Amino acid sequence: MEAQREWIERLEYDPIEFLGPERSLLPKLDRVRDCIGSLVGADPRDLAFVRNATDGVNAVLRSFPFSPGGEVVITNHGYNACNNAARYAAERCGKQPGGATVSVAELPFPIESNAQVIEAIDATLTSKTRLLLIDHVTSPTGLGLPVKELIELAHRRGVRVLVDGAHAPGMVPVDLSDLNPDYYTGNHHKWLCGPKTSGFLYVRRDWQHEVHPTTISHGANSPGLGKTPFLAEFNWVGTYDPTPILSMPTAIEFLCGLKEGGLAQLMRDNHALVLAGRDALLNALGCDPPAPADMLGSLASVPLPAERVGDGESANRLQRRIFHEHAIEVPIFLLKGTLPCLRISAQAYNSLDQYKRLADVLPLCLESERN
């Protein structure tokens, strides 16, 4: 935040000089691009900046050349906003002869192994599938999907893959040169602790000529705004505040300095902490682990007894009760509209005592909710 305030002061001191792409903005963005590229194993020339992962997913979906009869496959663990974007893109194409459709791969939860994910998606792909939208880490259930295997599976079937990596950078290792997705988008404001409205979109060079930002601006016919037409379009989408993006090297440097082992050690420690927190909750509920430890990063969801939570309004009421009566902020939701779940997350500022306190009050709140 201190770094961002300094950038804001520099911007407001001389907005024309600071924001003018032909003056000093582009070199600033390129330096951040180099930083993010090193973090996620990507050539900086293949990285554009977006407001967030939802923005990146929309840019790809709304640019995608769906053919008549084409299909996009999503999952039931996908982020609602991005699944909505897939349906919107298909619906727009669906107004044309042949149209496009959306199919949903049903991933189980509780889940026993990555093999179940691969089997469910393999069974959903068809000869009509043109694009697979998957999460690197699912938002509702915190599952780290086997994205490398899924990308290889889809490519063997002639299907492109868009990975929603909203939660991945800073939570789990990301190496795009190894994963080889067609498209990958991630947030800077989640596990990298950057300012809001800051994320990146990776597009494989084969497809960059097809992908356009959701806001078309000067870059569409001003190639000088970037080293490639792809970067030119995304570098300038109208007047905006670039300070969240420009602050990212500071955020990454800070996170890397928290532990002697750097960011990798921080991710390992957060993983261990969320597992310990999950164990405390499972013991309080008398439940078995709903997912293997190796499928988790630093998010974990636990199912709650349906007979004690009920419908969506009851889940919302339980979440509000835990917050207002115990000052604990934790999401509670219905997965697939039927299975109540509670999700915890772990970062450097959390401690095991916090999860133990949640484990203590949760049964009491559940009993009050039933009554």
From TrEMBL:
Documented EC number(s): 5.1.1.17
Which Gene Ontology MF annotations are present? isopenicillin-N epimerase activity
Which UniProt key words apply to this protein? Isomerase, Pyridoxal phosphate
Gene3D superfamilies documented for this protein = Aspartate Aminotransferase, domain 1, Type I PLP-dependent aspartate aminotransferase-like (Major domain)
Q: Which residues form the Aminotransferase class V domain?
A: 29-304
Against SUPFAM superfamilies, the record matches this protein to: PLP-dependent transferases (SSF53383)
Q: Which PANTHER family match?
A: HERCYNYLCYSTEINE SULFOXIDE LYASE (PTHR43092:SF2), L-CYSTEINE DESULFHYDRASE (PTHR43092)
Tell me the protein's name.
Answer: Isopenicillin N epimerase
The protein's organism comes out as Stieleria magnilauensis
